[in-house]
């Protein structure tokens, strides 16, 4: 498949059209951003680690029955994906309290959330990705009710699959963000699943091994992502 012009440059990935209107190329850059793009740095190897990490997770999810956009790795920093009509919403599941939930509700970081919490956010950096609910989604037409139900169902299915996968690697899946889109009528998981968009703690020590290391200036960001990848058996070569 031939790479064509750039369609969009996001904060961490560049999106290219191909000569096939149904496919895009995602280029994972080393750019690392936090606080809606306020803090940005280039971290060596991050693009490559995240590209391979997301490909590995998407394959695991496909095997578990979650349909995804992933077609295959093209190079160290590029993957081929189906071109989706993205919903402008982010689906978050939280198994353990952390991040904005703690700030918003005054909850102590680290407490187990049973049952897990589901939240929708609007994908809009200028508005700082505000939390929304199903009424906003319906009223403003960001997705129809059937799509909302499907996104919730698939996001919880991802939780069942990945909490187990990470637990087997000695990791706690604290929370994560997913984005979905439509392809020929079907709702598929899009974007990425990497330590940039989830929280992962060591199950024994609760050491943070995700983008909170960058947000909180803890250092060793990509080294932590590589440690997670190594434990999962992701091929980084
Ligand atoms: P952001 O837009 O949040 O800065 P990225 O830098 O990761 O994020 O940019 C990737 C962009 O590509 C995002 O806007 C994401 O919604 C979009 N995207 C991801 N996968 C697909 C896909 N399969 N089809 C269309 N758009 C996609
Ligand atoms: P939060 O605690 O900041 O709301 O984030 C919850 C989880 O979702 C966390 O793993 C980070 C991820 N996330 C993103 O990756 N991008 C986003 O824009 C948002 C709102 C959350
Ligand atoms: N994904 C957002 C950003 O890159 C928010 C965050 O991760 O803190 O700015």
Distinct helical segment count: 6
Number of structural domains: 2
Bound ions, cofactors and other small molecules, one mention each: adenosine-5'-diphosphate, thymidine-5'-phosphate, aspartic acid
Q: What string gives the helices and strands in order? A: EEEEEHEEEEHEEHHEEEEHH
Shape: globular
What layout of secondary structure does this protein have?
Elements: E1 3-9, E2 13-18, E3 23-28, E4 31-34, E5 39-42, H1 46-63, E6 70-75, E7 78-82, E8 85-86, E9 89-96, H2 99-105, E10 112-122, E11 131-132, H3 134-139, H4 145-168, E12 171-178, E13 180-183, E14 186-189, E15 198-202, H5 212-215, H6 221-232
Antiparallel strand pairs: 1-2, 2-3, 3-7, 4-5, 6-7, 8-13, 9-10, 9-12, 10-11, 12-15, 13-14
The protein binds adenosine-5'-diphosphate, thymidine-5'-phosphate and aspartic acid.
Adenosine-5'-diphosphate (ADP) binds next to strand 2 and strand 7.
Describe what this molecule looks like in 3D.
With 237 residues, this protein is of the alpha+beta class. The chain has 6 helices and 15 strands. It has 2 domains: 77 residues, 2-Layer Sandwich (Phosphorylase Kinase, domain 1), CATH 3.30.200.20; 134 residues, D-amino Acid Aminotransferase, Chain A, domain 1 (2-Layer Sandwich), CATH 3.30.470. The strands form 4 sheets. The protein has a 5-stranded antiparallel β-sheet. Strands 11-10-9-12-15 form a 5-stranded antiparallel β-sheet. It has a 3-stranded antiparallel β-sheet with strand order 8-13-14, covered by helices on one side. It starts with a strand and ends in a 5-residue tail after the last helix. The chain binds adenosine-5'-diphosphate (ADP), thymidine-5'-phosphate and aspartic acid.
